[in-house]
Write a structure and sequence with these properties.
The complex is a heterodimer of chains A (271) and B (802). By secondary structure, chain A is of the alpha+beta class. Chain A has helices spanning 16-25, 81-85, 111-115, 139-143, 149-153, 164-177, 220-227, 231-261; strands spanning 2-7, 53-61, 64-72, 91-93, 99-101, 122-123, 132-133, 159-163, 197-200. Chain A has one domain (1-244): 2-Layer Sandwich (Alpha-Beta Plaits). Chain A has eight helices and nine strands. The chains are: A alpha+beta (271), B alpha/beta (802).
Chain lengths: 271, 802
């Protein structure tokens, strides 16, 4: 099974991965202002248009100032709660590793969002027929024998791609070779039954915004029993909210079109 | 870099601005190397380093001179290397002196040095006198010891504001590379060069690297991380105002004819062990003239030397814009340049553009410069300049070469067709030249230099929008060919054969070469002969990652310069584990990298481009001193602790000669040090990135980084709009309050520093004020590069702002 290993000690925060993700997956740029979160982070959060995000964490660790960069994206669980929660199997764990998404099946119920322990899936609030979106581990590239776009673009090999077992061993090895350079934990190796995206860090994972106390066993059983009666209710709510959003967005679009038709000065003054 | 034991990164934010280079630092770090980051601000590079030491902008020389002192006082030097390969043992004239920040020979009325007293003492044969014991009181080594002793760590830290314990740790760790089997690499970029003493900053680095024996070694050297992907190529090709291609001097009025020019620039060496490679000057200039003027360059007409323009003024950036501001320049062609954002004192430079009759902007987008006439706050009707915008191809829309920081010349193929009417730079230049030729055909004061240009790149006589010049022909001309049947060093060549090596270039007109250092890059007439297009991943015999068959490297595919300094007198590597070259005593030849000349060990000295053959700890070639000395930036919060010379005594002071719009600020009104820099997400003046939605999303506006203490004093919170002001101008941006900027404790006060990204302007998808409205017109004493990196400013929360 394929997986990715992300080593925060190698990451230099250049964000080539963020751009490569948008480029490969045809995701539009978001309109942002200054820096929406901590440090240089932009956009504010994952969204339907942003599937991966670098976080900037200014920390004091062992009395030493550290600036550590974290990468947020889907963990591609070995036993994904999102796929279990999905009433129509729109989310699917592939044998190759990626958890993929079939938009033609999706009801837009957002059940997966509630089920995901990492709060990854996002909803297309701006679309008339909103779907769930998230990182696909570039399943199309993986199927073609390529590595995911973010791993390909990373200039410092902070993101590497390969067989899960090999990467897990490599992660353990790095800790073993440099025990003072790492927190002694491969995040994702065992969390929620193991994930196909694993992380190494030199600071406690909680400092990078990772949930520190996830159970080691899979969440699948949990999800099936507790939440299966609800999906269709949520689907209804989703459709209603989607409709409102569509109307609002349509108005904005029309307004923009009108503005474009008016003659405009070629150059606005800077704000 | 991957072979280094210690990496020193100063004046460079390599991780943010050269992420691919950072990959090799990552690898060396994982092998156990120690990475040191020295910067006024804790950067993404610092986050990656093992040791971060802060340093106030503009104090590099104090910082590094202190390291040199530490090495000299503790004898942490590679003594055999220093004695054998540097001029440490050379005796200096007894007329030399140094007092209160001034070297001997200074004339305050001209602000220039007469460098005669810095010269070596010569013996009867004209060779420098030496004392290999390094004991003579006037030998370079002893003069250095005395000069640098003034830079003890206490004094240094009072100037730089570095914490003394960390500074001493840096000294200790870095100078540990004096051992022959330890190597340190030095990386720098524009944080080093863009100062009034930028050249001397690099001199200081060079001196330390030579004392430690780190030059010519795998994992060593002084590495300029270039500010543009092809800056190396452009300087190689003579883009700087004082150079012709191949680092030949551009002639001045003093060079009345070719013989005088050759005499003026060809260094002489009387030591038979000195290769004195520049002794071949005549061959390179003659071959260049043959490349440019072909059949029209003959022995009878001095190879058309009189066609070359003779430099009669200072054509550096600041000088050009001062002259333009004074109304003395009619036209400007900006090829991929955006002075309205990138030039220092940008308010003045924007106004200078108003005085032009015409301006051409060749670029991918309509830049701030191209639209200066309709920028916010001006009335287009008031500006008479006629402006042309020529759409240019991006790098993937054309074929050609690119030369990287390591001098690798890599051929790139065209990936996609250009958009719209965009043309390659080559097409635009070709069309321009042909059109100018046509104009001169009927009229002109001195038409011959234009009309006689050898200009044929395979796309016909006239300008044709659909016929691209053949860039392979350009590359072949740059390499050069034989202009007639001839025999050189016992080898016969026919007319039009490509020259296989610059060692075969001649000064009798029988060879041509458009850039002698690129000779051997294209030794045949077929596309397959293009060495720059090679993509073979086989490594050299020493297996240190030279990849000699990947692309091509000038000179002569030599991957590490001065590699003959990496071995001892018998040709045995100082460090056998990562040897660069070694002498095979049986085969009687060098192995590994292409050596700096194939002579056996001891026959020639390793520093072949220096007339004496030795590396220069002491240098007489710079106008501002034989050794680096600390002076404050033009605008500084403190008085110079080292001497009563506040600023470099040899810099040109524009604010005294050209008073208008050249104000200089003082500490009372502007108590904060300001600096400018780039981020990963944007490129230079921003046209290529602020027009891309993905990159605009990441960094959508100008921000000003302010330390927590200063922000508290000023009542500024993260995300507030702030105004930054200098004596020249003011600009607005978002405050990014961070612990990554800390105050500096200097000898008599605490000083704060702030930093601003300079990528922004009034065009593009995302817009903002340009940081360069703040920076002054002042340049380095030798290169005139502007001092972008250190100035005085003040910062306020914007009233009524968020």
């Amino acid at each position: 099974m394929k997986a990715m290993l992300i080593d925060a000690t190698r990451c230099v925060g250049c964000r080539s991965c963020q751009i490569a993700c948008k480029e490969w997956n045809n995701l539009p740029g978001e309109q942002t202002e200054f820096f929406a979160a901590k440090g240089y982070q932009n956009p504010r959060d994952l969204s339907a248009k942003t599937w991966t995000l670098i976080t900037y964490n200014e920390l004091k660790v062992n009395n030493r100032f550290e600036w550590v960069f974290g990468k947020r994206q889907c963990f591609h669980c070995q036993e994904p709660a999102c796929a279990t929660a999905c009433p129509v199997r729109a989310l699917e764990k592939t044998s190759a590793g990626p958890v993929v998404y079939h938009p033609n099946l999706c009801l837009g119920c957002r059940y997966c969002q509630l089920a995901c322990p990492f709060k990854i899936p996002r909803f297309e609030w701006h679309s008339p027929v909103p779907k769930i979106t998230k990182c696909t581990m570039c399943a199309d590239r993986v199927a073609a024998g390529l590595e995911p776009a973010c791993a390909k673009a990373c200039p410092t090999d902070a993101i590497i791609f390969g067989e899960r077992e090999t990467l897990a061993a490599e992660a353990e090895n790095r800790i073993h070779r440099n025990p003072r350079g790492y927190v002694h934990h491969v995040y994702g190796k065992d969390e929620v039954g193991g994930t196909c995206v694993m992380h190494l860090s030199n600071v406690p994972f909680a400092e990078l915004g990772f949930s520190p106390n996830l159970p080691r066993r899979s969440l699948v059983q949990h999800v099936q029993h507790a939440m299966q009666p609800i999906p269709f209710l949520i689907a209804g709510l989703g459709i209603a909210l989607g409709a409102i959003s569509w109307i609002v967005n349509r108005r904005i679009e029309l307004q923009e079109k009108e503005q474009q038709q008016c003659p405009q000065p070629t150059h606005d003054s800077p704000q | 870099m991957v072979h280094s034991n210690v990496a020193m990164i100063i004046g460079s934010n390599v991780v943010e601005n050269h992420p691919v280079a950072a990959k090799w630092l990552t690898r060396t770090k994982e092998k156990g190397a120690i990475i040191i980051s020295v910067d006024p601000r804790y950067t993404r590079t610092s986050s990656f380093a093992d040791i971060y030491c802060k340093m106030r902008s503009g104090t590099d020389i104090a910082f590094v001179n202190g390291m040199i002192n530490y090495a000299l006082q503790n004898n942490y030097i590679h003594r055999d290397y220093v004695v054998a390969y540097t001029n440490a043992s050379f005796i200096i004239s007894d007329k030399y002196s140094f007092q209160d920040g001034l070297f001997s020979g200074y004339d305050p009325s001209t602000r220039k040095y007469d460098r005669a007293s810095w010269a070596y003492e010569l013996d009867a044969q004209g060779n420098p006198q030496k004392d290999p014991t390094l004991q003579h009181p006037r030998c370079v080594f002893q003069i250095m010891k005395k000069h640098f002793a003034r830079y003890d760590s206490e004094t240094v830290c009072k100037i730089t504001g570095s914490p003394r314990d960390i500074y001493e740790q840096v000294c200790r760790v870095y100078t540990s590379t004096w051992a022959p089997d330890r190597v340190g690499v030095w990386l720098y970029a524009m944080g080093t060069t863009q100062h009034t003493h930028g050249t001397q900053n690099i001199r200081a680095y060079s001196i330390l690297q030579l004392l430690l024996g780190n030059v010519g070694m795998a994992g060593g050297g002084i590495n300029a991380l270039r500010g543009e992907s092809n800056v190396q190529g452009s300087t190689d090709m003579g883009l700087l105002f004082h150079l012709l291609p191949g680092y030949l001097a551009s002639p001045t009025k003093a060079d009345a004819n070719l013989a005088a020019y050759i005499k003026n620039y060809t260094p002489k060496a009387s030591d038979p062990k000195s290769a004195n490679w520049w002794g071949n000057y005549s061959k390179y200039i003659t071959s260049l003239l043959k490349a440019w003027y072909g059949e029209q360059a003959t022995r009878e007409n001095d190879f058309a030397f009189h066609y070359l323009p003779k430099r009669s003024a200072d054509y550096s950036w600041i000088s050009l814009f001062e002259t333009m501001y004074a109304g003395q320049i009619k036209g400007l062609i900006c090829f991929g340049q955006n002075p309205a954002v990138g030039g220092p004192n940008a308010n003045k430079e924007r106004l200078a553009l108003h005085r032009l009759e015409w301006m051409v902007s060749v670029d991918l987008w309509e830049t701030e410069t191209a639209s200066f006439w309709k920028r916010p706050g001006v009335n287009p009707a008031d500006i008479a300049t006629e402006v042309f915008l020529l759409p240019a191809c991006s790098s993937v829309e054309k074929e050609g070469s690119i030369s990287n920081s390591g001098r690798w010349v890599q051929w790139r193929h065209k990936a996609v067709e250009p958009i719209g009417e965009a043309k390659s730079d080559l097409w635009i230049l070709d069309a321009l030249c042909k059109s100018v030729k046509q104009e001169y055909a009927s009229d002109g004061v001195f038409p011959a230099p234009i009309l006689h240009l050898a200009w044929n790149y395979g796309n016909g006589e006239s300008v044709d929008a659909h016929r691209e010049p053949d860039v392979q022909l350009v590359a072949r001309e740059v390499n050069g060919n034989f202009t007639r049947d001839t025999s050189v060093q016992g080898k016969a060549f026919q007319k039009n054969d490509q020259v296989p090596s610059f060692a075969l270039l001649q000064d009798d007109g029988s060879s041509s070469s458009g850039c002698w250092i690129y000779c051997a890059s294209y030794p045949g007439l077929e596309a397959k002969d293009n060495q720059m297009a090679r993509r073979n991943k086989q490594d050299a015999a020493n297996n240190i990652g030279l990849y000699p068959s990947w692309a091509w490297c000038w000179p002569m595919n030599r991957r590490i310069l001065y590699n003959r300094a990496s071995v001892d007198a018998n040709g045995n590597p100082w460090d056998a584990r990562r040897w660069v070259v070694r002498w095979n005593t049986e085969a009687k030849r060098w192995e590994g990298d292409v050596p700096d000349g194939g002579w056996p060990p001891q026959e020639k000295l390793p520093f072949i481009m220096k007339p004496e053959g030795y590396a220069g700890l002491w240098a007489t070639s710079l106008v501002d001193g034989p050794l680096p000395e600390h002076y404050e930036p033009l605008e500084s919060p403190v008085s110079n602790l080292m001497s009563s010379q506040q600023v470099s005594p040899a810099i040109k002071l524009w604010h005294t000669s050209n008073k208008e719009m050249n104000l200089v600020g003082d500490f009372a009104r502007f108590p904060i040090v300001g600096t400018t820099y780039r981020v990963s997400e944007h490129w230079q003046a921003g046209a290529m990135t602020r027009n891309l939605p993905w990159l605009s999303e990441l960094v959508p506006d100008v921000f000003v980084e302010i330390g927590v203490d200063l922000a508290q004093q000023k009542g500024i919170e993260n995300g507030n709009r702030v105004i930054v002001e200098t004596a020249r101008g003011k600009m607005e941006g978002y405050a990014l309050v961070t612990r990554r900027f800390e105050p500096f404790q200097l000898h008599d006060k605490v000083v704060h520093e702030i930093g601003i990204i300079w990528h922004f302007g009034y065009n593009g998808l995302v817009q903002g004020d340009s940081a360069n409205v703040l920076t002054p017109h002042i340049g380095d004493a030798n290169t005139m590069i502007p001092e972008f990196k250190a100035f005085l400013c003040n910062v306020f929360k914007k009233e009524g702002g968020a």
